[in-house]
Amino acid sequence: MYHRRFLALTVAAVAVASACNSVSRNDAGGLSEAAAIPVADFQIGDCFDDPTVIEVEDVPGLPCDVAHDNEVYAIFDHEEPDQAWPGQDALNEYAYLACVDRFAAYVGAEYADSRLDLSFFTPLEDGWNNDDHEIVCFVFDLTSPS
Hints:
About 20% of the residues lie in helices and about 30% in strands. By secondary structure, it is α+β, with helices and mostly antiparallel strands.
């Protein structure tokens, strides 16, 4: 049995942030320098430090070969994007379960057996109603100093 540990973060105004920012990537697709990453521009494997707000437009992205707090391991759309806004609690529960399901494929160990934890970004109601149904799962190490 594992304990449910997560902090759900929501995404605000992603379309505007994405249109205004450009992220420099190396030939392998990783970040080549520290930069603000719009959540809409995340790629699996992107590393970033903790955001300073709960409603996030972008995060402090970092190359993964330098110390960082988090790493993106899954990006997907909600399986029922045509439904009405499900509510933040229901969306968080869906995201949590879906992120747990995708955890082992990236980390190489089941969530319950890992020293790593997970969290995710979900859209706010306004984003959902404007066709943003994307969920971003990320992993972090509870034992490393922040």
